[in-house]
Amino acid sequence: xxxxxxxxxxxxxxxxxxxxxxxxxxxxxxxxxxxxxxxxxxxxxxxxxxxxxxxxxxxxxxxxxxxxxxxxxxxxxxxxxxxxxxxxxxxxxxxxxxxxxxxxxxxxxxxxxxxxxxxxxxxxxxxxxxxxxxxxxxxxxxxxxxxxxxxxxxxxxxxxxxxxxxxxxxxxxxxxxxxxxxxxxxxxxxxxxxxxxxxxxxxxxxxxxxxxxxxxxxxxxxxxxxxxxxxxxxxxxxxx
Length: 240
Hints:
By secondary structure, the protein is mainly beta. The protein has a single domain (4-239), classed as outer membrane lipoprotein receptor (LolB), chain A (Clam). The chain has four helices and 13 strands. Strand 5 and strand 6 (87-92) form a beta hairpin. The chain starts with a helix and ends with a strand. The mean pLDDT is 97.
């Protein structure tokens, strides 16, 4: 049974009834931040097309590596394939490939694709993922951000869903819209992140943030604004 805050949040973002009539979202993404260089990767500012399923954990980004390549993510498998569906390379049980990793351990292309897949699936289905089977939601202490007080939900992800970590915190403004997302990146040494969400847009009746900025999180839960780890800008969002 979800809390009153959870119900308010779902309604503010377009409502669960509308969400359940949709099956997929596609968006243009532009990504930056310091994490990629720490992982030995080059991140260019070129826009890419991200597609995720709304009610099962599947995601793909195009292009990836080569103009005619894309990724194919699902729990327990990551692949790079051609746009016609032929597998270029794949990795089963990719989570295990990060065993022993620390924050600056290098990632290969399949590991990068895995991170992209689960992270963008999480982001593009927030907050509606809390209504999926197996998710547990608890209201937590609010967060004071300047003069604003943001109410919080702690979400326990089921083992069947791959994401940053099991417990993740989400904070919401007076309008019910998501403003901040806290988590640990387990596959990168478990570093703590505070991601700020802003510039909300409406696409096909669904409200979502178009700007995401993830910073290293200090022990007092504040964001280290000098350490921007990941930046994501969304555009041309289309639900179907």
